[in-house]
Amino acid sequence: MRREATVKVSCWAVTTPVDLAAGAPDPVDAERRATRLFEAASQRGIDLTTLEPTGLAIARLACQRAPYLATLLSADPDRLDRVARDPYLHREKPRDVLEAEVRAACTGVSAHRDALHAGLRRVRGDELVRLGARELELGTETEVGRELSRLAEACFAAAIEHLGRELTARYGANDVALAVIGMGKLGGEELNFASDVDVIYLYASDRAEVGPLSVHEYVAKLCTQITAALSEVTDDGLVFRVDLRLRPEGSRGAIACSLAQLERYYETFGRPWERQAWIKARPAAGDPALGAAVMHALAPFVWPHHTSPTIVDEVRALNQRIKRELVRGRDHYDVKNGDGGIREIEFFVQALQRIHAAHHPNLRVRGTLAALDGLLFAGLVTDDEHLALTRAYRWLRHVEHVLQLEGGLQTQALPDDREVLARRLDYPDAAAFDRELAVHTAEVARLFATLGDDRVDHPDIDAILHEALDAAGEGDALARLGFTDTTAARAELARARRRPGSPLSPDATGRDARVGARLLSALASSADPDQALRSLGDLIANRGEQWSIWRLLDEQPAIVRLLGSLLGASAYLGRTLVDTPELIDLLVSLGTTAPARTSAQIEAELAARLAAIPPSDIERQWNAVAEIKNGHVLRVGLADFAGILDPLAVDVELTAIAEACVRAALGIIRHQLDPEGALAILGLGKLGGRELGYASDLDVIFVYTGPSGEAGDELAPFTKLAQRLLGALRTRTARGRLYEVDTRLRPSGSQGLLVSSLAAWRRYHAESAQLWEHQALLKLRPIAGDAALGAAVEADAHATVYTPRDPRAVGEAIRAMRTRIETELGGPNDLKTAPGGIIDIEFAAQYLQLVHGHAHSALQTTSTSLALRAAGAAGIAPLDVTRLLDEGYRFLRHIEHRLRVVHDQPVHRLPETKLELDRLARRSSFADGGELLEHLERWRREIRAAYEFVLGA
């Protein structure tokens, strides 16, 4: 469920409360709230009819769709202007900015506890209005929960600082360390608008005194005052209700305990539900070293090496107990605790975390959505299950937020009359809302019921595998499972069935029959079932009964789901697995092995493999390089699709693979041809910036120095060496090609010499190079060959690029180049060249580097992201602008990765057909192509505006 921004632009005139309430889901209530707001504003001398459009839009939104926000605005009408001017009204507020705002609100209040309370409540009210507007603007996005959690952390930190100072003045200086451990939704960064904040207060040791008090007495006083500062109801309301019942011994326990007491409690008395509660725990405020010590001490309790076989039963029992205590007897559906509600999603995820995290460290994450990504990566849920639970969680959380924006109450129960709620959620009526509620909750309840059950119980799958249907019936069953080209799917199934030992054979029994059912279910749940079935057919054809994979898949059902996700996500990665099925071991090991590898690690692996191959067997050597390259790309692809690596981390990993392969290739060539002198290979473009995507070309240049340091006869052998290297990298081996290489960024481009002497390279860039060539040098970095020569070229490039320049001239030149690219190569479906595309972000960063890099060494980086962050940190460009560009870069690169990895092709245009666009959307974690395009359009508008701001357009 998405909508256009509702608070960005206001185009109506407001002269009376009736105008502000016009068109509301509940016009009578909206007009009453608008009247109160007009009256309160008038008492403060504020004329609402003269407000800027954004302020009016917020007021209208509050009165019509979020009555609690209208109450907050009426209590403090100046809040409307403060929120309207907040630069983070339409985007996530960084942690450091929020912390600074809370500190500023509490500055100078240490002597007056009431003033501290008032300052915290004012910031909280402002933030709830800002975040409420964001929630209603963004719908099912989840940044709001993260920001509310950060607000709670900042308020705890401010209370600790100010109240600790007050107690120090009274009792004397001390060095008592206090840690606030966030539990539940605070720990998972998933707070809602009326959440309690579950915390546990801890201190380091009892072995000290604070004036006349013991450490425990001092900490108890401090924690009592901190709790009151946040949860005491004053004329300004409260900040957050603080819930301490998860502490050792619950309500009967001390308000705070020492680390030693905490350890003893969980060693002796810790119960299963407490183990589950600590899954989301994290240090939220206070002493960071103590917080880290607490998490380290409790890790064996939370993530034991051996798990109880009764975990699923424990989770089911806890779920039923909550339902008995909180839900049964109520007439209204509870979106949190009801059947198929938020809690069943959380418990489903946490049960699988408890069972499998001992062997899959990547599952040791706190947020529900992050854990779902980890479960997909580990093969413990299918693509369909991941998508269904993710969509249901986001949708139910949004409904929960809108319910709580009604009155600021901690409620999750749907009202008797759902018509107003439905319209506030952009549904035409309650029936439409109820239909979507039923879809989400039925799917969640179904999946929750499958906990602990690996059987596949699907009539269509059973009928297909046993050939119980005629041609038309089988086609209909395949269509119901999600296959698009059912004729081709039937042919693939027939081909796979004929192979000896195929688990899809109707004669398969026992182990093979189980594996066949799981495989077909996993393929049907993938982003592209048709593609997944083709790849599986190839896998079966290549190996058949001689391969032990069927035994492996029977013993580890999670691998079946991971295999299905992989084959449906990328034909390229699927083909890699088909060509080298021994890489199936990656699917097993990745759950317990960190996905990151440096280029040095990959180079060492290549060296070890090549050392075992005679130098004369050139074909085997190149096949070995290609095989290792493919294996590492498969490793990165799995981590990418699982969300373990963010888009820029994917870039770094793919760049490391490419660098290692280039160095290995150069070593092979040097066994055949090794001119006297030095050769440096310099990376530019995405290679130089450590920003390679799937199927990226490698932009390189070659610079050499001969024994005499002069060009001439020395050029020919270096040219031959470079030509052989290029040919080897571009040649398609039995294991596939290595890389396409682009050398057009050398001096004089395609018309220039392939290899330049150092003297010639210096002369060209000193005398002949144009601005765009200096712009390209921003990415120059040595990647292979002679290290000293590479460093010399890099130093010369820095001296050439980072020199004072006229900002206006640079801006005009870059804008002219950008316009030409946009005109000649752009198009609305192009991620790279369209307005607001990747090039806008790269050119904005490069403008900042060219103009300011000479004075700010942090800008002297080949990374687009690091350059933007450095510019924001140095105040060269507004922080919110550079952060937006950085976040937009990550978003666009994420979509580009998903687009390119399918067939390992360097494409950057979106698919034109709805079917392919929907498949891309699913690979990118969107519901469908429409939702993907809405996100893309919003990002493009904001990126283009930021680009124009940076360049002064």
Short key terms for the protein model shown above:
953 residues, mainly alpha, Beta Polymerase, domain 2, Four Helix Bundle (Hemerythrin (Met), subunit A), five-stranded mixed sheet, 60% helix, disordered N terminus
- Give me the Rg, rounded: 31 Å
Whole-Å distance between the termini?
A: 35 Å
Mean pLDDT: 88
CATH topology of the largest domain: Beta Polymerase, domain 2
Sketch the major β-sheet: 5 strands, mixed
CATH architecture of the largest domain: 2-Layer Sandwich
Total helical segments: 42
CATH class of the largest domain: Alpha Beta
- Overall shape: it is globular
Q: Name the CATH superfamily classification of the largest domain.
A: Beta Polymerase, domain 2
Write the layout of secondary structure elements.
Layout: H1 17-21, H2 27-43, H3 53-65, H4 67-75, H5 78-84, H6 95-106, H7 113-138, H8 143-171, E1 178-182, H9 184-187, E2 196-203, E3 209-210, E4 213-214, H10 215-231, E5 241-243, E6 256-258, H11 259-268, H12 272-277, E7 282-286, H13 288-302, H14 311-326, H15 342-356, H16 368-377, H17 383-407, H18 419-424, H19 430-449, H20 459-465, H21 471-481, H22 486-498, H23 510-524, H24 529-543, H25 549-555, H26 557-569, H27 571-579, H28 584-589, H29 599-611, H30 618-641, H31 647-670, E8 678-684, H32 685-688, E9 698-705, H33 715-730, E10 732-733, E11 736-737, E12 741-742, E13 755-757, H34 758-767, H35 771-777, E14 781-785, H36 787-801, H37 807-825, H38 838-852, H39 864-873, H40 879-900, H41 914-923, H42 929-950
Parallel strand pairs: 2-5, 2-6, 9-12, 9-13
Antiparallel strand pairs: 1-2, 1-7, 3-4, 8-9, 8-14, 10-11
